């Protein structure tokens, strides 16, 4: 725990005791016995938290709290009150105190309260600068994020952009795989040529083949004229095969031949046509498992997966959640001609706590909804969907002090394996990597648990 705490108590011995304990926990603690001096210190220096007694001569803790809230609302105030004096604690909370603890002070509980207050302060500071960060942040094309996970992604994209190698972009649904593909194209030497994308899951098998390879006149009933496919439309540029995991088995052999020979034969055509296109593929499916289960050709998998780029899920991107939220607030407020400038600290806490199974796409929808519903200049908790307002993080329960809660080692393993599999969106290859197991061992255990459907 890090941060600066200002302790205010007319009892010098109490100040020294609190100061010594908090400094052992990593905090920098400064104390004073005068509320007036405390307020002057707060104006002159930076503190994350004020810890004050309520009963003090000259100025009560409640009065000090009111002055701090009026002049330094960014600094949370924790008040100490005698055991049983809940009325005075309630008065302090009404005056704007962040929290209270009772005397005699239980130091572990106090440390936990101060830790929460420090996080609250730091989150407030982050929220205050979000708009400026969005305005001045250097984006990697249309992608936005400053987390370590995103910096690693940017670095990889810079290194592979000018390569002609095929790239497989993997990641959960809603993480922005098409944005990654466009960024690769925009940073490549092909950037002046077309970028063409097709969703392989959105078209019937026969129509997908015609869309990609084109067709000759009279190739089928409605083929009144010849049509070149997307391979030729992307000539010289980049073709994104989105949702490649749903590519039909019946056409995978033709796709593989085209990629290997850089030539294609239109549906119903009798001549092969050369093409020059860089192939990018994207999927949220576990293709290695699909190969093992015979749903995807192994040779095609290796052909499209020369370089693999994994897009991180939103839950692993830390405060990027707030940065993206601010960007979407400004975007949708401008579209709706509403004066919504940001989000409250409570909203920020809710957004950071949520696991975002739908990733950036879900966050975008949540912010669009909130901007449409809000009646204020900044988003409030009531503007969020109920599932985010009431979200509670789930943890794997290994055991407790009650003997009836204890479980066998085998049961602990089962719970943890299923927890990891759920956390990675059902991707068995990634789950096996996290667990340190080979895929065959993981499949055997899942069959044992009756959970192969996950």
Show unreliable segments: none
Whole-number total of structural domains: 4
CATH architecture of the largest domain: 3-Layer(aba) Sandwich
How many β-strand stretches?
Answer: 14
User: CATH-wise, what's the superfamily of the largest domain?
Assistant: P-loop containing nucleotide triphosphate hydrolases
CATH-derived topology of the largest domain: Rossmann fold
Classify the secondary structure makeup into a structural class. Answer: alpha/beta
Radius of gyration: 29 Å
Strand order of the largest sheet: 2-1-3-4-5
Helix content: 40-55%
Topology:
Elements: E1 4-8, H1 12-24, E2 28-32, H2 35-44, E3 49-53, H3 61-71, E4 77-82, H4 86-94, E5 99-103, H5 107-128, H6 130-136, H7 148-160, E6 167-170, H8 177-187, E7 195-199, H9 205-213, H10 230-233, E8 238-242, H11 249-261, E9 263-264, E10 273-274, E11 278-283, H12 287-292, H13 298-304, E12 307-310, H14 320-336, E13 342-343, H15 345-353, H16 359-373, E14 378-379, H17 386-389, H18 409-423, H19 428-435, H20 439-449
Parallel strand pairs: 1-2, 1-3, 3-4, 4-5, 6-11, 6-12, 7-8, 8-11, 13-14
Antiparallel strand pairs: 9-10
Helix pairs in contact: 2-3, 6-14, 14-16, 19-20
Structure report:
The model has no long low-confidence stretch (mean pLDDT 87). The protein folds into four domains: 4-129, Rossmann fold, CATH 3.40.50.2300; 157-310, 3-Layer(aba) Sandwich (Rossmann fold); 314-389, Orthogonal Bundle (Helicase, Ruva Protein, domain 3); 403-449, Homeodomain-like (Arc Repressor Mutant, subunit A, Orthogonal Bundle), CATH 1.10.10.60. Strand 4, helix 4 (86-94) and strand 5 form a beta-alpha-beta unit. The radius of gyration is 29 Å and the shape is elongated. The strands form four sheets. The chain has a five-stranded parallel β-sheet, sandwiched between helices. It is an alpha/beta fold. Helix 2 runs parallel beside helix 3 (61-71), helix 6 packs across helix 14 (320-336) and helix 19 (428-435) crosses helix 20. The protein is built from 20 helices and 14 strands. It has helices at 12-24, 35-44, 61-71, 86-94, 107-128, 130-136, 148-160, 177-187, 205-213, 230-233, 249-261, 287-292, 298-304, 320-336, 345-353, 359-373, 386-389, 409-423, 428-435, 439-449, and strands at residues 4-8, 28-32, 49-53, 77-82, 99-103, 167-170, 195-199, 238-242, 263-264, 273-274, 278-283, 307-310, 342-343, 378-379.
